[in-house]
Amino acid sequence: MSAKTKVGRNDPCPCGSGKKYKKCCEPLDEVRALEIPPEALTGTPLDEYLLLLPAVGLFAEGIRRFDPDGKEFARTVRKFEESFHPGEDGEIPDSVFMSWQFCDLRFGQSRKTICERFLESPSSAPLAEEGRKALLDLSASYCGFYDVRGKTSEALVLGELFDGSERRAGRLHEPYEDEIRPGEILFVRLVGPPDRAYLLTTPYFFEAENRPHFRNMLEFQRDSYLSELGLSEMPAEILRRESYKAMLPTWLRLIEESADEKRFAANPRGAGTAAGTVAEAVKAGKKAAVSEGRKSRETKKRNEESGDLVIVNTDGDKVCLTNTRFKIADARAVRSNLSAAADFAHDENAGEWIWEKKDKNNRGGGGDLEGRTVIGTVFIKGEFLVAETNSLERALQLRGRLEEILGGAIAFRSMRSRDLADIPPPSPEERERLAREREELNARPEIRDMLGRMLENYYLKKWPEAKIPALGGRTPQEAMETGEGRRGVERLLDEIEAMEKAKKPAQIGFDFDRVRMKLGLPPRKQ
After folding, report:
1. In a 3-state reduction of DSSP, which class is residue 323?
2. Residues 76-91: what's their mean pLDDT?
3. What pLDDT shows up at residue 89?
4. Which of 166, 287, 302, 155 is nearest to 223 (CA)?
5. Where are the alpha helices (DSSP H) in 330-475?
6. In the structure, what pLDDT confidence band is assigned to residue 420 with cuts at 50, 70 and 90?
7. Mean pLDDT, to the nearest integer, of 48-52?
8. CB 77 within 8 A of CB 99
9. How far apart are CA 353 and CA 332, in angstroms?
10. Could you give the CA distance from residue 463 to residue 154 in angstroms, rounded to a whole number?
């Protein structure tokens, strides 16, 4: 076959298997097409993201072929291709299609994307710290609408239409960049931190007169996404990101249908054809202009995100307390199915089920508790099943899992999320009640045994290898190599032990001399 021959998806595969091309070699050819030749690299931080794409694509192909969720993934991707015909003349660019299936498409019981699954898999272990950071940036990226506020020789200054936040996109010094005018609107996927992002997909351009129309549509995007989840509000950053990801096919359809109705006119300034690789697609600079606007309606005022410290859980999600409620149709089925599920631990004393996941870094040998993370708790309250988590992302995962194992025994009713900053501090009476309940809980023999094993696991196995700020970012084992570091470890252990001893008797103590002996220090004199 000539390298220039175009094989149709329904044509016989050139490999001679007798299968259609789309059911044989096309997926692997698409992965190979992601490989970036050296001459296509930009010489900018964008290359970190481009060089990751072949590995992500290969991982996606493995999911499609071998993972239990692979059929759902393949079916959804196929429907997208049938709807939008990516890469074909006059259709959406390949860069938009590939980034959607890697970064946006949520599928399976976990409702996680390809990038999120890749981050959690052993396949990502060889990545250096910079590679993992780039993969996290890819995972968090989305196609959004941006005002062109200005440009310098090195960057485009863009304003997010969704909430007004500002981002700076590094320029690649391509000819089409010189033709960008302040006031225009871009629809594009940016990747990277707000102050040094890059355009990852072929940008669509629209005239400034359409700004009110897009703001109306973004208001609809915000409200419809919250309504679908049964929420009245959620953290602004999550709402912006997840609603854009969920709405991308809708936006593409709107652009396509508007063009068919000739409400979109091709912009002749620097128009190009989407290329096969993401690097080429970024440079192609395909443009379109909207010629018709709609009347704007006043948007609701929203507080902008503050610069306060953001508290995250072990998954890196922003902590916000989320409560999900389901109406129970069959209480007996709920109890039996939850108790039979391997990933739920039934605490009969507390009357709840704890949803756990294994730590991917767990190497075993530490008992049932080691290497497990509690994702959420589930309990029955009257005629409702209630699920509580500490982030919206975990709430969405838990909802999907409960609906999978309980089916028609429950029906979703609502999901409410509260930011920690919105929760008032407890009153003195509540503090006293919580302290009393904590003491009573810690006094139970099974709880004391569990906490004792957790302390032993932490201080004897994890703490000696953990990087400690008080030791200059070194681990205790590393600090023991110098005299000054050795003295620092001794002082730190003395302080930790003193704090443990200051706790009330009902709390669990720990013999820190075991840690001292493990590190080669003498026991503390009694």
Report:
1. strand
2. 86
3. 77
4. 302
5. 331-340, 392-406, 428-442, 445-457
6. low
7. 87
8. no
9. 15
10. 45
- Supply 362's token pair: 């767990």
Closest CA to 184 of 162, 211, 163: 211
Residue the block writes with tokens 């272990």:
125
407: helix, coil or strand? helix
- Return the amino acid letter for 8: G
The token pair that represents 436 in the structure block:
């009393």
Which stretches does DSSP call E strand in 214-302?
A: 264-266, 288-290
Residue 322: its H or E element? strand 320-328
Q: Which long-range contacts (CB under 8 A, 24 or more apart) does 26-32 make?
A: 27/61, 27/64, 28/61, 30/57, 30/98, 31/57, 31/58, 31/60, 31/61
CA–CA gap between residue 269 and residue 206 (Å, rounded): 12
pLDDT top residue among 412 and 357: 412
**Cα–Cα distance, 100 to 142 (Å, whole number):** 8
For the chain, helix (H) and strand (E) counts, in that order, are: 18, 14
The answer to whether the CB of 489 falls within 8 A of the CB of 500 is no
Q: What is the pLDDT of residues 307-332, one digit of tens each?
A: 444 566 767 677 778 889 999 999 99
What residues are paired with 380 via a beta bridge? 385
pLDDT of 333: 93
**Which amino acid does the sequence have at 224?**
S
| Tokens representing residue 483 in the block | 């005299």
Instruction: Please answer whether residues 288 and 206 qualify as being in contact, where contact means their C-beta atoms are separated by less than 8 angstroms.
Output: yes
Closest among 234, 245, 223 to 112, alpha carbons compared: 245
SS3 (DSSP) at 414: strand
> What is the bridge-based pairing of β-strands 288-290 and 352-358?
unpaired
Confidence label for 502 from pLDDT (cuts 50, 70 and 90)? low
Mean pLDDT of 288-299: 27
pLDDT at 197 over 90: yes
Beta strands in 177-303 (DSSP E): 185-191, 198-199, 204-206, 264-266, 288-290
Average pLDDT, integer, range 167-194: 88
Alpha carbons 385 and 331: distance in angstroms, whole number:
9
Write out the two tokens for 299: 């948007």
State how far the Cα of 141 lies from the Cα of 198, in Å rounded to an integer.
Answer: 11
The encoded tokens of residue 357 equal 């996941």
Name the token pair of 356: 């756990």
Task: Give the tokens for residue 347.
Answer: 């605490």
Q: What is the DSSP string of 94-160?
A: HHHHHHIIIII--BTTTTB-HHHHHHHSGGGTT--HHHHHHHHHHHH-EEEEEEEEEE-SSEEEEEE
Distance from C-alpha of 456 to C-alpha of 382, rounded to nearest angstrom: 39
